[in-house]
Protein 1
Amino acid sequence: MSASERVSCLIIGSGPAGYTAAIYASRAGLKPVLYQGIQPGGQLTITTEVENYPGYPDGIQGPDMMVHFEKQAARMGTDIRYGLATAVDFTGPIHRVQIDEEKWIEATSVIISTGASAKWLGLESEQRLNGHGVSACAVCDGFFFKGKEVAIVGAGDTAAEEALYLSKICSKVNMIVRRGEMRASKVMQDRVLKTENIVVHWHSITEEVIGDKTVSGVRIKNTESGKTVEIPVSAFFVAIGHEPNSSIFKPWLTMDEAGYITTVPGSSKTNIAGVFASGDVQDKTYRQAVTAAGSGCMAALDAERYLSAAGYH
């Protein structure tokens, strides 16, 4: 085993939660070390326009916003490093985290802000037009398609919720459902079916998102009849779920059935003392930049209190 490094506060992940935790931890004198992970800046780096984050009256591009977060964390004194946490050992009071399958970091406190990744259909056209009419967040991006016809794929509560959200701002919402029924709760299904401008396409799969530089339509196939149809839409929303980036913590931390880390209500505390979780890795309900940032603040304050009480700080 290679030599390890000892730090007082280790932050894993670099979205709004990780960087906000870093800003607060730095100001508290915890000398945090932050590893950016596989996607520096998190999900916002694949988002174009962000208009719902306070303090940006004219909106801002997602990648630019994360550059601001990173610069602020660095200015406060955070040691920001490129690297991916690949294993952890939370056996004792000193927590051990392996970076890039080689170096071990020993940390008195750990803040996990590894986020969640949207699940995609896996179409070439979907990835090519991602950020140009294809989105995995209707609440984030629906506003840009006000008064236009759109499509959404998915059949769970999130898909139903996002379809209803879109129905309030878009002229028509085409909901593409793979089977002849939805997985969504009965109450959500009823709401969808009662909404006049939501058209549900049952037994349908998406063959291709159509468009050159931006989305202009979607081609779907009915699995019962074999017929394909092209629907002219300005946006294509994917709502087939998110995957929390929590697999390396599974042997140690309490999680729900989907893999979201469980925290003590009203805090960022996990089942292991000195290990805190913030952002989308523990939040399957809101998943917004502003709520992630808020929980990053909570995690840093919780870590500071933990270190003080334990006599480390």
Protein 2
Amino acid sequence: MKIVRFASNRAIKYGMLRGDEITAMEGSPFTYLRRPGGSPPLTDRIYSLKDVRLLAPCLPSKIVAVGLNYRKHAQERNVPIPDHPLIFLKPSTSVIGTEGKIVYPRASKRVDYEGELAVVIGRKAKAIDRAGAKEYILGYTCLNDVSARQEMADDAGQVSRSKSYDTFAPMGPWIDTDVSPDNLKIETYLNGEVVQSARTNDLIFPVDLLVSFISSVMTLLPGDVISTGTPSGTGTPEGPGAMKPGDVVEVRIEGIGTLRNYIVEEK
């Protein structure tokens, strides 16, 4: 199932995407997923995909992002493999949807892409065993962990400022509930050229371990997002990763879809 959140005229709805048609849901899918096996009821209202605007597929109370979670990315940065997930938070105010505009802050000297697989939590999770972690997952989507690299250097490695500007967490285009996260091809394109390419089997800490680990630290709420880390091809001080106003950036994940965004100057 592909779950979309969309705007039609002035109404915002959730729906199920089949081909180029969206069947509207009754309310939010998270309302019906508090217990395993719950399913949101569908209405008889059908919308054409071309006639609506896709929004970020959920409204997380928080995005828990994971740093340095691909082996080749650790090698690229010449740092040791971590012995536990390295996590940080991005605020809900950084979220935008596919086809939205990433605003390049006036104060920033360098803004980087970081294409990532994102996990959408379906029901409240606290101190979850790894074996049962996937029961708490609604599905998966694409996320771009946009990062202001100079701010990260200026803040002695603290990432809150560099990761938290408005528009710095594009997500979408939808939530896929059926895809397996264990060996997906993930690519980032900048102006049509491949700049990141990997498979999720290169993750140091897989999805089920991340859900278990993070839920042991904080309660995960329905709609919260775990962004699982970025592959090689970005994040080095003088290396690849930089974007500029006028660029088009895409995160494409096998079995899910394409998240496309446009870089614009801050007014």
Protein 3
Amino acid sequence: MSDSIFERVWKLGGAAGRIAFSLAGAAGDAAINATKLASLTKAIQSLSELKGAPMKLGQMLSLQEGMFPPEVQKAFAQLRKDAEPLPFDHVVEIIRAELGERSNQLMDIDPTPLGSASLGQVHAAKLSDGREVVIKVQYPDMRRALRTDLAVLRTILGALSPVMNVPMGPVLKEIRTRLLEEIDYAHEAENIRQMRKLFADLDWICIPEAIAELSTPTLITLTRVRGLTHSEAAKEDQSLRNVWGKRILEFIMRSVFEKQLLHADPNAANLGFLPDGRLIIYDFGCVKRVPEAIAVNYKAIVRDLLERANHTIPSHLKLAGIHMRSGDPVSHSFLEPILDFYADTFPDREVGFARSPDVYSRLWEIGSRDFFESRNIVFPPDILFIHRTFGGHFGNLRALGPVANWNDFLRSVLSQIA
């Protein structure tokens, strides 16, 4: 984050231009030529180097399976890798400046970060009482950079508008709100407190605890809960992967339909897996309150899908805030390919989660069809981070490879939710 404001705006503007060039005409076209793909790859590399809001936006897009052609999606996936970390001596300076004498409680800080993301990086340490912790340190000047970045992100979002099929004004407002929350680590600590309380009745969910006396708005210290990474978990026995997969799905369902508070950053790095089947959830910077209308009607839509009551889905979508600009419900003909995809991907028998080899190409085909009709559909901005979570965990579950009768499992979870 050492660039001057001018340099940052210049780099962001260049990245925005390359993205606009690369995705021009992408809507409705499943292919992208080599020149445009090379330009997009260079733009994505720029977002990674800039960290902050540009990298966060790119990571969000990388998790939206089916939004872009497969080769574009693969290019955006580069942003899921760790960012270049701050030098350790700089990290120590930040810790001392933020905590003062309280920093003496932190012992054996590991100079190699556990991870370096778009907004900050994480280091393992021990407390003077022997407890293992992790310290998340925000990159310097992040709030100042965010104000600058958001102005330029309008250009990037404008380039994506034909592909995302949603109005950019409300989308940018929603992104701005979430990012401002995400750089406030005091807000994250409150998210953790609420989520630990809401999910205390589910003993298979582990949420690290924030240590208030060693946290500030730009630094947060958490108890360390060690678990397998997503890639490590994907190599474990099938029976264990089945348990973990069901628990990821149940966590999402309960978050949206029951608790109405959703951990909305589905990066695989935010999941940990324990050998006894428990699921660890990390990083609560991005948490989305789910409006009642969406919680109630999305739950009804899942029931409709399970009962093959497709005729009632358009009315539930409308009540959730998704309808034609005229106010009419979304047409059955528009929804039909989506419903067929669900029926084919989740048949009423035991199968691997979305294991069809053409699953992503089908998602892209669905997303790019009937382009002009989709442009006339109204979406509430609230669904941006909700659908982002669905899309991200779709990929996480598919990579984990659990096997189940997913229809039976969904029915079982719905029966337990009031």
Protein 4
Amino acid sequence: MLSGEYAVLEGATALVAAVNARAFIHLGGSLDAAAGEEPARPAPEADEARRLAEAELGATEGDLRIDVGALRSGEDGAMKLGLGSSAASAAGAAAVVALAHGLDLELERRRVLGWALAGHHAVAPEGSGADVAACVLGGVVRFERAQPEAARRLDWPEGLELRVVWTGVEARTSDFISKVRAFEAGHATGFSSLVTRLSSEAARFADAFEAGDVTAIVDCAGRYGHAMEALGRAADAPIVEYTLRRVAALAREAGGAAKPSGAGGGDVAVAFFTSRVAAERFERACRTAKMQILDLRVDPEGVRAEA
């Protein structure tokens, strides 16, 4: 997520990017339960997306094998990085069914998106679906929850530098959304005020991005991070915890801005800069602070078939 966290759940615009860390989904053959064989990363979202695609296209044979190792951390892949592994699994499962029926993914990408979104929503209804749209469409996607079919890709602004930092802390999106919903239930006015602030900043960010105004993008990112921190304080949820605050401080010192990517509480942060010099200054500061810059870039391709 580049911008729009929490606000997208209330109808605001979000920008989300596909990155070059891929899940791999294979359909075919049967898993040998007796031998303890199972999908590398079982994903109920993928099962639902497959079921919905098959409801329209017809049944397919074989079991799903899912590998999301590239979206996880640690020698055994025990920790998620917060890069949307469940969304990627749902997108891949819908796409592999389409391929099994001989469909052209480029021509049928919107249908694949519908199955993937519905499958993901069936398991995680609290999610926006923005990450699913990025996985299917690729590139940077402008997304609104009420009109997922209208999701569209945007060009990356010339001169804008992006860096992604792994906090080393794994966070569960559902836990933070639950706390924010509890705050909403008990403090409707305060919640409304904070969401209005987030929504306004999300719209400014998206408009600046579409206009290619890199200075405004960086300014908006900084303000959005502050707004997320204010929501966290109000909801008694560490949305911007210590490491994320430290990343934001290092980005400011380097001449840019950083914010959580996703629900916060850990996972990854995104940092924006108007020059490569500033971005490299930030990288050096992160290395000194023992923070890991992930080797990620925006991937213009969404779901695709591989031989």
